[in-house]
Structures are given as structure tokens and as C-alpha cells.
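Second attempt. The first submission of Acid ceramidase had a stray character pasted in from the spreadsheet, which I only caught after the job came back as garbage. Lesson logged: always re-copy from the clean sequence file. Corrected sequence (394 aa) follows.
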Amino acid sequence: MLSIYFLTFSFYSIYLQYKSQIITPWTEDCRKSTYPPSGPTYQGPVPWYTINLDLPPYKRWHELMADKAPALRIIVNSVKDLVNAFVPSGKVIQIVDEKLPGLLGNLPSPYEEELKGIAAVTEIPLGEIISFNIFYELFTLCTSIITEDKEGHLLHGRNMDFGVFLGWNINNNSWVITEELKPLTVNLDFQRNNKTVFKATGFAGYVGMLTGFKPGLFSLTLNERFTMNGGYMGVLEWIWGKRDAMWIGFLTRSVLENSTSYEEAKNILTKTKILAPAYFILGGNQSGEGCVITRDRKVSLDVYELSPKQGRWYVIQTNYDRWRNPLFLDDRRTPTKMCLNRTTQEKISLPAIYDVLSTKPVLNKLTVYTTLMDVTKGQFESYLRNCPDPCIGW
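This time the job returned cleanly.
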């Protein structure tokens, strides 16, 4: 019921915003020459941290979280304020603090111990740390792109959009949670024996992975998929004791850490039961190795692959099944395709992908960061973003 209220309020707010400004947000021409990042749409670089997988899970995140604890407390308090605005008694937060860890039971190793370590170093109740991790199963809006150039070279880019329905600041036309996530955005170099296992961009306090690559092998991004049989059902089933599915953020991290090829990663992402519906956007290191895997919680519905010989030199994914029209207020698919087609396969590059991801409404008020990945060259870049007005609410 709360989601319905958030949805109605958000749609109405955006309608009023654009009615007053008489702006059609979908008509911005494709951006050019936005790379290297600068200007009003660029907020700054994303800092790097090393996560030492040789450490006990409880200690792996201590250095990072010692730096980011104040920022994490701010966003956790914002979520608490939002919940308390709808349930003023404070009982929801009380249940989260006192009951949630017990209701969820043992989370998969090593993630439970990592979450306990984060709770200890930040002095935030474990239930609230777990809730912070659950949010990413439910509130992520994104745009992901994989392209192949004329030489068979693969490139992968994404905008991470997060925070829809989680508080709109009418004073500066921004989503509260989106802005509070930017100080928590970090690049992570996961190492074992002082060697990189994989790299990722994530949010401090969240131990799953939404954006990452295994140098030389494959790249992976995760987009949320909205269905009636959504992530909340998976969480409820987990609480009720049915625990044969994986948390999607834990699954993507496991794939990045343990899979040794594009085909192995694709097989796992296609077949593993998951708590929430999702789109997995997976790129490899050879011609044709790129796909969008459309997942229900229990089965794969579609695997849509690159096919350069048939003229399909890119695949894109926002948050709507490719065989259905996107929501009319949230059509990021059409401008993404338009700008890629204008770029052409002959001229595609990471700077060109950054241009596409900088074009409104692909870039929008929910965009936290943009990531560019070249698996073959080992190139991994992430940048914090702004979307100055006029800019669509998402």
C-alpha cells in the first residue's frame, strides 16, 4: 500500500513540474563531447578502496566503513524518517532493529559475517544494515548498454539510477536518497593474495554487487525488473523459511568472484533461483559475447544476445521487458537506441557511450553514477553525476 502512495505522489509531482515548465523531456538531442567528464553533469570521481578477501569476513569492510560511517548514518536516518512519517508509532523501526535479523535467519556465508562487521564498525543496528541491503533488491532503476565495434571489441556502460519513491526534496528538485548515496559511492578492488579478483562500483554498507567486471573475462550489471511477483515476495518467502533462492546482489557478487568465463557466468545467471526479478546484462571478451538475461524469480524468460552478423551490434536494457513498451513517463530506451544509432558501429567508443548516458532522460534526477568498462583493456571508470534542471524526475 505504501508503494502505491509513493507512486501516485511521485507521478503527480513530476506531472506538475513539467506542466509548469512546459518541457518535453524526451526531445533533448544526443549529447556530444561530454568525455572526459566535466561541466554541470559531472559531480566528481569515485574513490577507490581495496577489499582484502584474505581477511576474515567480519573485518573486510572495516577500513572502508570507518571512512563512510557518517554518510551511512545519514541515509539510514533518512529512511527511518520516511518510514516514521507513514507509521509514526516507530514500531516498524523497532521491528527492524529487534526482530529482522531473527526473522531472516542465517544469511549465506560470507555475507552475514560481513554485515555484522559493518554494523559493529558503524555502530548502526544490524537490522538497519540488513534493511539497507534489502533496499537494493527493490528500488533500482538503471540503463545498461553493451556494444561491439567493427573489430569485435566489446564495451559496457551503465547509469546507476536509485532512490525512486524514497523522498522528493521540493526545495532543490532532487530525490533525497539519490543525493545521499553519492558520498557512499565507491570503487572496489577485491583482491586475494594481493591480486585483483574483480572490480566493482558499489555503495558503502552494501555487500552485494550491482556493477562490476572481471578483467579480461566478463562484465556484469544488474537492473531491477518490476513484476507483481516481485522482490517483496522473495523476501517474505525467505522469512517464512523457503530459502532455496539467492539474493540477487549476493549472486552477482559470487559470479564476479568465482566464475571464470562468460559462458559459466551466463549459465549461473540464467539458471539460479533468485529472490527478486531482475535483468542481468553480461558482456564477455569475444565477438558476440553480450546479452540481456530477463529473469523471473524462478526461471529465465529471455536471453537476448548480440548478433553482429545480423546487424545487432548493441543490446540495451532499462527496466522494462524488451517485448513491452516502457512506461510513457520513463522511456529511456528510445533515446538510448536513437543515440547509439546516430553514433554508428564504426564510431562507437567509451566516450561515445558516455555521451549516450549523458543524454536526458537517460541521465536523470535518479542517476547516481555512470560506469564505463572495457574488459579486454582492463579499463574501469566510474563518475558521480548531476542532472541540472530542466531534468526529468527519473
